[in-house]
Amino acid sequence: MVSKEEIFRNLESVRALIPEGVGLVAVSKFQPAEAIRDAYEAGQRTFGESRVLELLEKIPQLPADINWHFIGHLQTNKVKMLIGKTALIESVDSNRLLDVIQDCSTKAGIKTDILLQVHVAREETKFGFLPEELKSFFRERTDRKYTHINFRGLMAMATNTDDETVVRKDFATVADLFREVKTQLAPDLADFQTLSMGMSGDWPIAVEEGANLVRIGSAIFGER
Ligand SMILES: *Cc1c(COP(=O)(O)O)cnc(C)c1O
User: Which pTM value belongs to this model?
Assistant: First the structure.
């Protein structure tokens, strides 16, 4: 684990580089609550976690005004535990998951904010809607079905490669899709404003391509 001073310094240098209007999710997965507290003391309020049980363990140990973003693959049988605990579920990757979130949110009497995850990376292991699936989803969407879901935007990861051309192309594909949904497929969704793309190694490219939320872990907390 890196020192508090280092976390402060890292956060400061990341913040200095991120343009105005771009939000920062400090990805704290696998980091102890202590490290999150250090970043909190440096003013960071939004953190990203990728495992439900890990998140549920951390929440009571940390200040209540933290905005927790869930960014990992979410199993449908864990949705019930997560509902009401997150500011944003960024990684909604299937229709089935969406249905379960709708169901659990309805039962809990709350509306859940989500991003739909887009699969553009050239890796089988990544989750998400293919761009064509996402377009069909919005073409076929009926408002009445998702009464307890607030569609806030899209999330994506680029191909894990040093080839900048490939990474840029992935981000550009998602940014195009984001604009198409916003302006043509679902102009009625007033809160559809967030494009979450970019991690420690590729976030400047993501921002150049139009991301307005970046998810940065190791550049703040050190290697996991
Ligand atoms: C781990 C993770 C990140 C952060 O990755 P770093 O390379 O540590 O910045 C961002 N997004 C998702 C979805 C992740 O799982």
Answer: 0.97
